[in-house]
Fold:
Amino acid sequence: MPEPLLEVDDVSVSYLTDAAEVGAVDHVSLALHTGEFLGIVGESGCGKSTLLFAIAQLLSPPAAITSGRVVFRGQDLVQLTESELRHVRWRDYSVVMQSAMNALNPMKSIGAQFKDTMRAHEHVSNEAIEARSSEVLRLVGIDSAHLDSYPHQLSGGMRQRAMIAMALLFTPQLVIMDEPTSALDVVAQRSLMTQIKDLQQQFGFAVIFVTHDMSVIAHYSDRVMVMYAGQVAEIGATRSIFKQPMHPYSKGLLDAFPSVRGPRRPLIGIPGSPPDLSRPPTGCRFHPRCSEVMPKCLTIEPALYPVGDTDVRCLLFAKSLKDAV
Amino acid sequence: MSNPANADADDNAVILQSIGLTRHFRLGGLLSRRILHAVDDLDLVIHEREIIALVGESGSGKTTVARLLAMIYPPTRGRITYRGKSLHSLRSRKDVLRYRGKVPMVFQDPYSAMNPVFRVSHGVMRNLKLHRPEMDSAQRRAEAERVFDMVGLNPAADMLQKFPYEMSGGQRQRVGFAQALAVQPELILADEPVSMLDVSIRAGILNLMANLRADTGASILYITHDIASARYVADRIVVMYAGHAVEQGPTEVVLSQPKHPYTQLLLSAVPDPRETAAPVSADSGEPPRVINPTEGCRFRQRCPYAIDECARVTPPLRPMGPGHDAACHVAVPESADADGIAVAPSADPAVATRVVRGLGGHGAERAD
Structure:
């Protein structure tokens, strides 16, 4: 197997407050290869956005990476200074934020914001900027006349597309997306996802896509990582996880969805809510909400156990108790 | 709806009915001629013990409908009758208060719908004081505990003492329902009650709505953009597009035999984690803003079946089957489907795909 494009190695992130240290991301490792589409799912508060920010080196105090490395193309991003990062960020990897309405400057036209972005990372002529800006806007299906438009003149779907266009200004190898479709309607959402997938196939960049909506990534991602309470609960190929989720939490997430097709089934959902990360539960962090909880779950902290090509953090899949400890 | 087949199908008495309900908003200043048509000519009937889902994209007018029914805005045209009496005739504060008690609303955002400086008991107790003045404070307390219990907030006595920030989103939304229940409602207007909540919590609120109807007999108007959750709870579905009701009928009929091309598009776009094949479409999903509309079907620019007639005449709702209506010139009623012309039901996947593929990306250019 070739070197991965991105290797997140045992990364932990804490929010250091006066009262307590809240471990939002707890020893997460993952590898992403060129052209791969990784979906990260979990409830709000499970640490998925924090992990994204840690990968993109966008954390600001009180959040800080307390351990681990983020190796992108052989370079540990955690060790880079802000000015060194400037050469990598946006040119080699870019970020699409959750709310385009808040991420775009309402006082500047789309074109002016594209220009700022390009100027910040490269010395380029106005003509080159103009040409590239129209090109990326066309890529996402927006007429280049909209370079003169202001964010409020675009619909929600178009703003989100403009954000994606901005992320593609430098043909990055990795695009990180934080819930880009959660503010959109189903039809717009599907169209945007299809477009992201098309662009990805066209340019071969890798995507990390964060969402709380299992169904969005079911059709589009190659691999899925389910996060719970700052940890990886399950990671594996999308097809196998959706076909046969192993972690009770993944099952719960899938069962929480009503379906428009097939028989009507009662929805179970997941009782309770995610734990307070300043005081995570003992043993398995999911045990207070788990439908298959066993006595040992309260005391033994499960590791990630390989089952086929999936890794799952659940004692049900520990080969032996010794294995678990 | 004014469709007689539907009235026969449902023996329960009508609680709320709208006839030709219309609401326009003037955009810009007082002299502006730009009129946004949020809702046009909506006929809606809500019976006792019924859960109706009003489904549509953002901007389709569904929230405006809820606000009209809740008397937050007056209608521009048309009327709303409650138990046969027009809401226009409710003049005194007492009558309006009584109506609002019978038809309370639950809001979309449980985070901003509650005053953060009061304990959550405040809203419930205030509702009880306003709408059930016959109760003394001990009775109010007991009643508040009863409704908290009913929506699954227990132990109720402790939960009542909490501040909103101490509760999760799902719990706050339950408080919203408890407040509505405290006034002994006949119909709860629930405006996107689950869209701000996490998936894992949504199921609980959807189940809560179904149980409330079973336990208290209250009807629910469930407003949502999520057709899958509508299917889960609702008996009947009304699909709105750009201010018009374009299709309505019993939930399973509408979902298995959607007649309006927009309903078909909506259904084909719903992601399903249990399916592997990705839905295909070029449609960018931009709903039109209906400013000074001309006559004609508002979906025609996105419709693969549009004919000349669609630009000339606004299609009215026509019966498609028992209790099932669609506002489409091209749609063919159930009995006539056999010859396979025009809009075939999406039960045939090949046809459904064709429908979806045919919807071109007009939306991308439209940005006003």
